[in-house]
Amino acid sequence: MSENKSSYIKIKNDRFIVDMMYAKKTNMVGRAVYKEINWGNIAVVHVDLWERLEELTKVLEKEKLKLKICDAYRPKIAHEIMKKIIPIEGFFAKTPERSQHCLATAVDVCLCDDDGREFLFPTKVDAYKKKYCEQVLQGEVDEFLSYLKKARHDYFDEKMKNAISNRKMLKDIMESVGLESINHEWWHYNLPNGKIDRYPLIQLDVKELG
Ligand SMILES: [Zn+2]
Prior knowledge:
Radius of gyration: 16 Å
Strand order of the largest sheet: 2-4-5-7-6
Number of strands: 7
Structural class: alpha+beta
Strand content: 15-25%
Order of helices and strands: EEHEHEHEHHHEE
Bound molecules: zinc ion
């Protein structure tokens, strides 16, 4: 498949809140990596993914909801930096080619109300918590991995009914436009068939995007 820069869309829409977690320090690596590489708080997706997300605007509007985009296209160089900060197996894809974020065919999202207040979910997006970030950076992963169990779609806890019903509502909304969930991260959604055999690993320049 041949691709050019016009195949990539910068998300600018009233129903979407762009709050890229790697453009600020509150993320698993504790650094504003996207700022460091002059990318910034910008959410870009492949047009094939955008077509599905754009379909959501009607339902979001009707239900008075907003979708917060916490990660989208991840520049290859950002992936490499993050991988160097946490070189532990299982945290970041082995190579950028294997990450649908680097191909612009995945998003990390959560739901907010009309005023942009985040709904409650069983964990933070990307399971980010400062204490786990600090532990993981020290190589202590046990407590974090135990917390990560709550990030699964099959996690259930009677005491978290509200958060779990929000997780389900998000899943229903994302699946209604044909996006795919992955079981171990409630916030991550893929464009089906959005892998390297169909979408190239591309280095986008922020200045070239509209
Ligand atoms: Zn993700």
